[in-house]
Amino acid sequence: MDATRESPQRRSAATRWVVMGVLVLAALLAFGVRGLLAARVVQARAAAMIRAGNFAQALDEADLRLSRDADDPHLVEVAVLAARSHVAHLLETGTPVADVAAWLEGQLTRRPYLRPALSARLAELQAEARRAGRPPEKN
Fold it and tell me: Which 3-state string (H, E, C) describes the chain?
């Protein structure tokens, strides 16, 4: 018997392990891609809502995904745009600055991923509300 040749059983077992490894890797990749694709679908839906002027709804849409994965920079960007746009819309429609500041403060409390981008805007709104003589109301 030649010692350098593998037995058919050993080759068969090795082949099974390689096939199993490839299948496991494929399953992991499919799971990862599925999550990424789902995030991009949510991002596209929220962006469409922003274009349609549904800013609060777009923020809620992005938040559904971000509440599970707040590390998606593309979704955070869409959520920030939605919140900024909603603030601008509220101010344009004559909503008192104190009420807009209270809304934004509530959003920053509920959605901490918005804080880095919008805390300065909240401070501006609160300062403007104080100058106007009406302190922001707490939710």
Answer: CCCCCCCHHHHHHHHHHHHHHHHHHHHHHHHHHHHHHHHHHHHHHHHHHHHCCCHHHHHHHHHHHHCCCCCCHHHHHHHHHHHHHHHHHHHHCCCCHHHHHHHHHHHHHHCHHHHHHHHHHHHHHHHHHHHHCCCCCCC
